[in-house]
Amino acid sequence: MFSAIYIEEEIYSFSRVQEIIERYPQLPKVKIERYGEVFNRKAQNFRLQKFKPALILAKKHNKFSLPAPQEYRIGEGGSYYFSHMLNCVYDCRYCFLQGMYRSAHYVLFVNYEDFALDIKHKAEAQNDKTNYFYSGYDCDSLAFEPLSQFAAYFLPFFKCHANTVLELRTKSTQIRSLLNMQPIENCIVAFSFTPTIISQALEHKVPSIIKRIDAIKKLQQCGWKVGLRFDPLIYDDNYAEYYRELFESVFNQINIDELHSVSMGVFRLPETYFRNMAKLYPDEKLFAAKLNKQQGMISYYPAIEQAMVQYCEQMLLRYIPKHKYFPCTLG
Amino acid sequence: MRFRDEVVISNHHVVNHMPMLNFVVALSVEAKPIIQHFRLRKIPGNHGFTIFSNETIELIVSGVGTVAAAAATGYLAARQRNEGAAAWLNIGIAGSLSRDVGDAVLAHRVIDATDGRRYYPSLIINPMCETASIITVPKPATIYSGDRVYDMEAAGFYAAATRFNSNELIHCLKVISDNQHNSVDNVNATQVHALITAQIGKIAQLANEVQSLTEQLAPNSMHTDDYHIIIKRFHFTVSQQLQLKSQLNHWYALTNCSLLNELKLHHCRNAKTLLAELQNNLDAMPLSYQPSFR
User: Fold this and answer.
1) Interface size between A and B, measured as CB pairs under 8 A
2) Cα of A33 vs its chain's centroid, Å
3) Is the peptide bond before A270 cis (omega within 30 degrees of 0)?
């Protein structure tokens, strides 16, 4: 699964670290001082590393949670995102991580207790509000669960903090640890979708839509709150047909009444990330599409974007009430 | 006559974008088994170094030490001016406290003993032998410690090679020639030849692995052929060359076909009109993610 495991010396003796490295006796293990020695250095190629990334076990020292971008929010109150991990098991061609990092190695920050303390302080500082904490910005929240035990640690923690909401954003079907515990009120498991044709072309290694819908059904049956994220919307000449089929397929199978929220946002990237990504994958259709640069962001031309959003919103609102819909529009 | 024919006939221009594999080896005696295995031939001329090659591989005999290794690496890179990716391997003998003479080790870390700099080759290849930290020392090591492997070139080689390519394609493989029981003073040329020869299978495996990685990054041959034919036809400014490259990328992404086989460009009078024509075609191109499309 990994090419090697790099371990920061400071955390080598952590039981969480020892449990992980014991699972891979055959892999080279290299002690390092700080993860930055290996991760994101010059002369690294994200595309090549993606074939066989290394696992880097590290300690995060600061900035445990940060204010969430405006377009990411699904509720009023404090909004923060936090990343226990950098990089993702999946290989989605539209993902900004490819443009942001030179390394495809996975960095797992194992000091969950420090993240938890930071979240606790933030929640206590605004105890008159609901505070949203989004996980899955720099990684998939659940794809690494068997190894990271991230949800297994954080769900009981969030359960004890009533004025917080945890969003686990994922494309994964690794839901066993959730099914093995009682659902908690203040957690939303948010699944991302693109239509099948687009998913097969651009979302490499991602579980099929059928499997993800199946995971949603299981979670809903057990009482977990589920959200849907149609983000990014990807243009294809047949987008209307593809998104209509996707919405039909998803909403006909899940329990809409129990659905927490639905959000939708068009494909957009900071220009610098886009340039890096297009250089990595020069033969990729996504980057050859007619794209527009505006205020340092790359996206579709406004006419295409508006037509897609309008159409998809119209379709969506046939299935869900408006109060459950959160458009991801750039502020 | 087609656009492609005109240009080929007028220029007889053949561009070779075959991914290269480069060996940097300190001593002739270390290089000889590699030269024999890959059937390399000496490149005549005054290069400052002895260089051997075949169609896809070059080997430079650098001499001993980090400065020599870095200079040889830089010389080979500058000489090739390869537009595509190239892989780099540093092969040689090394010392160790406890490893057996004859063992091969692949570097998972290279440390420069003189300044403490550390390099981490990405091990995305399947290691064909154990991996270890290699510490590059300025003089032959006679006192060894820990699990490290001692050599005299890896750090110089690595620092130079990473200026030209990414670290997934740059590796150091060392064969243990001396340890606490077998002093470096007793190592002779015959032994070195035998040690490298005994590990030539692993060296070849490493070469295969990195070469297949470089192929992943090799530019689309249709693209490079079309590009070189087109820029010979008209004068392109640097900015127009970049624009052409970008448009060709888009063309191949959307069509997976050679531009010159698909598009008639005879009527284009200069680079500007050609780029405009190509852009018009791109703008009119459908976008579909259907696998059967194009």
Assistant:
1) 106
2) 28
3) no
pLDDT category, B17, cuts 50, 70, 90? low
Considering the domain boundaries, does residue A20 fall inside one?
Answer: no
Cβ-Cβ contacts under 8 Å, A289 against chain B: 287
Which residue from A30, A45, A290 is facing B283, i.e. has the nearest CB?
Answer: A290
How do residues B30-40 score in pLDDT, each as one tens digit?
A: 999 999 999 99
Beta strands in chain B (DSSP E): 20-25, 41-42, 50-53, 57-61, 86-96, 104-112, 118-119, 130-136, 149-151, 170-178
Q: Domains of chain B (ranges plus CATH)?
A: 3-12+219-283 (no CATH), 20-217 (3.40.50.1580)
Q: Is residue A261 part of a domain?
A: yes
Q: Name the DSSP class of B23.
A: E
Tell me which chain A residue has its CA closest to the CA of residue B162.
Answer: A43
Number of domains forming the structure of chain A: 1
DSSP letters spanning A223-251: T-EEEEEEEEE---TTHHHHHHHHHHHHH
In a domain, A301, yes or no: yes
Q: Is B221 helix (H, G, I), strand (E, B) or coil?
A: helix
**A65-67 vs A78-82, strand pairing mode:** antiparallel
pLDDT in tens, A168-194: 999 999 999 999 999 999 999 999 999
Q: Transcribe A121-177 into DSSP letters.
A: HHHHHTTTS-EEEEE-SSS-SSTTHHHH-HHHHHHHHHHT-TTEEEEEEES----HH
Q: What is the mean pLDDT of residues A220-241?
A: 97
E strand or H helix that includes residue A100: helix A97-100
C-alpha A320/C-alpha A230 separation (Å) is 14
> How much of chain A exceeds pLDDT 90, in percent?
94
Distance, CA of B240 to CA of B234 (rounded, Å): 11
pLDDT (0 to 100) of residue B8: 43
Give residue A272's domain range: 60-84+111-327
- AA letter at B97: L
Q: CA A183, CA A191: separation in Å to the nearest integer? A: 17
What is the value of ipTM here, to two decimals?
0.92
Q: Does residue A314 sit within a domain? A: yes
CATH code, domain with A230: 3.80.30.30
Q: Is the pLDDT of residue A147 over 80?
A: yes
Q: How far is B44 from chain A (nearest CA, A)?
A: 32
Average pLDDT, chain B: 90
Residue A120 forms beta bridges with which residues? none
pLDDT-derived band at B146 (thresholds 50, 70, 90) equals confident
Answer whether A275's CB lies under 8 Å from A242's CB: no
Cα gap A61→A34, rounded to integer Å: 11
CA distance A68 to chain B (A): 32
Cβ distance A278 to B249 less than 8 Å, yes or no, reads yes
Taking a C-beta distance cutoff of 8 angstroms, is the pair A31, A38 a contact? no
Burial class (CB in 10 A: 0-12, 13-18, 19+), A113: exposed
Rounded CA gap, A4 and A105, in Å? 10
Rounded to a whole number of angstroms, the distance from the CA of A296 to the nearest CA of chain B is 19
Kindly list the residues from chain B whose CB atom is less than 8 angstroms away from the CB atom of residue A1. none
What is the Cα–Cα distance from A277 to A288, expressed in whole angstroms?
A: 12
Please say whether the beta carbons of A161 and A172 come within 8 A.
Answer: no
Quick check: A235 and A267 in contact, CB under 8 A?
Answer: yes
